[in-house]
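Forwarding the complex inputs:
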Amino acid sequence: MSVEGDGRTGELLRLVGVSRLFHAGSHVVTALQEIHLSVRQTEFVSIMGPSGSGKSTLLNILGGLDAPTSGKYWLQGREIGGLPDRELARVRNRHFGYVFQNYNLFPELTALENVEVPMIYAGVGRRERRRRATVLLEQVGLGARLHHRPAELSGGEQQRVAIARALANGPTVLLADEPTGNLPSNQARQIMELLTRLNRQGMTVIVVTHDPSVAACGQRLISLRDGRIVADEAITGTSDVAARVAQLEGVSL
Amino acid sequence: MPFHWRLLKAGWFTTVLVILQVGVAAGALVVILTHLLPHVTWPRGATVLEVTYQRVEERAGMAMRQAEPVFRPEDALLVRGEIPAITEAAALVVQPLVALMVDDRPYLVRSAGATDPGYFRLWALEAVAGTLFGAAEMAQGAPVAVISEAAARQLFGSAEDALDRELMLLSVEEGLLLQGLLAGFPSGTTPPPRAVFRVVGVYRFPSADPETVDLRRPEIIVPMGWLTAQHGKPAGPFSDPFADVLYVSAPMEQELAVQQALEVLLSPLLTERRRLQGGEEARSRSSWQLEVVRGGQAQLLREQHRARAAVVSGLVFAAVLAAGVALVTGNLVRMSGRRRAIGLARVLGASQRRIVQSAVVESMAIALVGGMVGLAASWPLEQLAAPLSDFGAGGTTPFGARLAAYGFCLVVTLIGGLLAGWYPAWEVSRGGLAEQLREEV
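Prediction (whole assembly, two chains):
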């Protein structure tokens, strides 16, 4: 295992020359091309780009849900590209918290049980995981909804359950793919406030979004087009993001 | 995956269907095994050799063979004395298709025979009512008979009702007349006298197979001593004091050696006896051959074993296949329905191995429940199947065989559950995580 992107320098994630190709019959679709990226601890990174630009593919690779066709990937100085399934599952369980656009909760389980699931895979005892899940749900404002199933919760509440679940094992990075995509604006605002608060508490957050107001919550904006990073810049305000979006989509404001 | 019970409850209908399918197949498996397993045990112990002296005659280019009555009761003693491997021997005079009268009503039985008590021991005949005649009746030439259970039912209604009743065996000629195969007796001739016997016992062959008809197995057996006491005069269906067949039993592993020893011992003896009996001129175109074949129980059991083993194997395979297909199909349906949940579980930290392990445990549990349902269902299934099949004609299934069938059924369902759980889970969980999460439920 090679060591690069040492955690001591504050660098958490590092991608070098990462490409991802998909084969669709005889066609080869390039989703990502020669991506070089480094993310430092406690950063809030927003990833934007038009549809098909490779945002979600990049997030999937960052989160260990997908493997690059070529290139290398280090997490806290450890290369995780070639890890066997069991090790990779452990990395996903301990280092990453995932928040999806469609929440991805288990519909058969209550909010409390949903939050407990990653802790089961981490081997946390029943009593401890119940205690931690309760605390987490209280932290996201769902202390009164512990025993409700997803179908009995609003979209915003479901997403907060998903965030509580993502935090269950104290992850290194929180990865969110369009976390507000299915939510009305007031609930979307609450979710983003929650993510921002977590980031201020020291959590590294990487968000993929179409929404400039969501992206503006971050400190750094990575813009993708046709599978390539076309810009990687600090965010100073929502107008910067909106301008970058317009530029990516070829629209003049 | 965690919270299996919830997931099972969510897909309860599919689960119940799979349990029922496995239950029916497992029940069928138990029925098949409990009814047939006792009949497919490999024959052990002694084998019975059937010795006949065959006259082979060329007629129209074909070799016609006929067993001639040449054996005497003392031949059984001779072979037992001369060939140490022979454990039992008995000569049998046998007459097929014998007509008889019981209470002035005519009957026809498969065959009647005269032999000595060695025959009972050789075939391990069991007395189901009364007793089988012994040395005393042989010595006295007593007019007693033991009859088969089937004959007792046919002639008297039951085994118990047959005891101490009289049978009047008719001569072959009278029998033919009675059947309408003979118009009348030639003028100036009278048929041999009828022979009256008192039934002292009813026997059963321990390996009785209702589908097997052996004309040499007499339905009515009388002591050879009675035949000897007639001093060569025809009586009833018996016209000759010589036996048609000599049966010997020997350990299976010495079967070949005994066969060879019998040929060496009996061939010259029978040749000499034939010469003394005369009639050589009329039979000058015939050749004679001592034939020693595994015509006894061992042969029969072996053939039955082969046929039944094939039937059992086929039926067991079909039942296991049906249960396996039901399990795999059910698991595939359930696992495919959970593709997204499986993907999510993997995202949250479950390894593929853990997913497969959980699925296998779940599948084995379902299979086990199905197996238990099958055990419970086997009894009503047996009742349903009984009129359709005569597999159970051999009597009640021994407890051990039933227990073995239950055990086998549970082991098979568990193994089926393991395999049927492993493959669908492995198949469903091996795809890319991102694709699994995008899967629509």
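The longest helix of chain B spans residues 297-337.
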